[in-house]
Inverse folding.
């Protein structure tokens, strides 16, 4: 009984965190698209119920081999996370020089704008460049097949997305440098 109670508490904690993470993602999307600053409590309940129902349906549909299917899905998601993981540090360390104006992040008409076209293009190209080199259970690209299954797509996704983003940010780097000079002169 004690072991069963411990397992239930562990699963409850994990499921709660998963629902919360899904809710925060939906809340971020909804508030940015609708320009709302908060979400009503009844909408929170609806979002969490929908996320939990969708997760339960997916888990039940994949019960025969859930762990293997889930692992494959998570590894497939890395193809989409890799370019994003390159763009963020390039922006933080090499473009913005570790200087962000946090208040401006929440201002759609501020210095960061609504969205960064260069970052979006670098991200999409970073994902697309990986396709011929992918080697997953969902898809094996022609180059990966030709290379005997070698998986180098994520390396290319990192290099291409990070390099393109840096190349697209020349104007921003110049503005950051000018602001640093002004701050030094003051």
């Amino acid at each position: 009984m004690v072991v069963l109670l411990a397992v239930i508490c562990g699963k409850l904690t994990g499921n709660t965190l998963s629902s919360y993470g899904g809710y925060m993602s939906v809340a971020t999307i909804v508030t940015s698209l609708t320009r709302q600053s908060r979400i009503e409590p009844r909408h929170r309940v609806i979002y969490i119920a929908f996320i939990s129902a969708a997760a339960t349906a997916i888990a039940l549909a994949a019960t025969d081999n859930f762990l293997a299917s889930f692992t494959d899905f998570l590894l497939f998601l890395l193809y989409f996370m890799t370019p994003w993981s390159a763009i963020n540090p390039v922006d933080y360390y090499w473009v913005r020089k570790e200087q962000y104006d946090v208040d401006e992040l929440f201002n759609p008409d501020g210095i960061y704008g609504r969205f960064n076209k260069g970052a979006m293009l670098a991200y999409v190209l970073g994902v697309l460049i990986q396709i011929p080199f992918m080697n997953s259970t969902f898809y094996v690209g022609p180059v990966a097949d030709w290379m005997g299954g070698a998986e180098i797509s994520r390396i290319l996704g990192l290099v291409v997305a990070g390099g393109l983003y840096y190349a697209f940010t020349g104007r921003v780097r110049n503005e950051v440098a000018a602001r640093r000079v002004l701050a030094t002169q003051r």
